[in-house]
Design goal:
7 helices; 24% strand; 5-stranded mixed β-sheet; Dihydrodipicolinate Reductase, domain 2; 32% helix; alpha/beta; 2 domains; Rossmann fold
């Protein structure tokens, strides 16, 4: 049995992850970690001292994930990171630390298999279009913008070409930010935060005479659990660094 700890166990994603770990025949919920709650450990260090942990799943806050990951890797705890907000240089640091410590680290901006397929399809479509933008829509309690999924999608698309604004005229925003943020390969990303959404993303490609859209909508957080468990099993068996669920699908 894989002994799993869940950090952020009392959050909406954390509750679903704990349930999925308990239901899986190959995993055991060894520890719940959260800053509140009578039946939880209040820090990774506290849980580590009290329990055997093979893999820690982190669904906490952008402000804490980097330090959490460093603690795990420095203490031979394999980690699966589902919280977004890590900077490129932090991801590179964790990649090098994972290799140095020979301890597995799995980072995924999105654990929904459908969302990952959307990113893979967008990368494929990027070969055939010179113009593209991304709209991502999330609940209004999401703290980081744009989403990690949108950033990862733009990064994957940028592998096809270095710019997606061919033929655009010079622009001047009369309201700052109205054109969204500019990401990899000049791809504009627009972030919407609204109660009622969980997570949605639309990638829009355009060329003369046609528009092509790829969209994914998450209606329930259970859609992420298959991907989370895939990542746990992978990182338990291997000691590599992985960024993106598409690498093991």
């Amino acid at each position: 049995m894989i002994k799993v700890a869940v950090c952020g166990a009392l959050g909406k994603m954390g509750v679903e992850v704990c349930s999925a770990v308990e239901k899986c025949e190959e995993t055991e919920l060894a520890a719940k970690i959260d800053i509140a709650g009578a039946d939880t450990y209040h820090s990774i260090e506290e849980a580590h001292k009290a329990c055997d942990i093979d893999v820690l799943i982190d669904f906490t806050q952008p402000a804490s994930i980097f330090e959490n990951a460093k603690y795990c890797l420095n203490n031979n705890i394999k980690i699966v990171i589902g919280t977004t907000g890590l900077r490129d240089e932090e991801i590179e640091y964790l990649k090098n630390l994972s290799k140095d410590k020979k301890t597995g680290c799995f980072i995924a901006p999105n654990f929904s298999t459908g969302a990952v397929l959307m990113m893979m399809f967008a990368k494929q479509a990027a070969k055939y279009f010179d113009n593209a933008e991304i709209i991502e829509l999330h609940h209004n309690q999401k703290k980081d913008a744009p989403s990690g999924t949108a950033i990862k999608t733009a990064l994957m698309m940028s592998e096809a070409k270095n710019s997606f604004v061919k033929g655009n005229c010079p622009e001047k925003e009369t309201i700052e930010g109205s054109r969204g943020g500019t990401s990899y390969a000049d791809i504009h990303i627009h972030s919407v935060r609204m109660p009622g959404y969980i997570a949605s993303q639309e990638v829009i490609f355009g060329s003369s005479g046609q528009i092509f859209k790829i969209r994914h909508d998450s209606m329930d957080r259970q859609c992420y659990m298959q991907g989370v468990l895939l990542a746990v099993k992978h990182v338990y068996d291997k000691n590599d660094f992985v960024y993106g669920l598409e690498n093991i699908m």
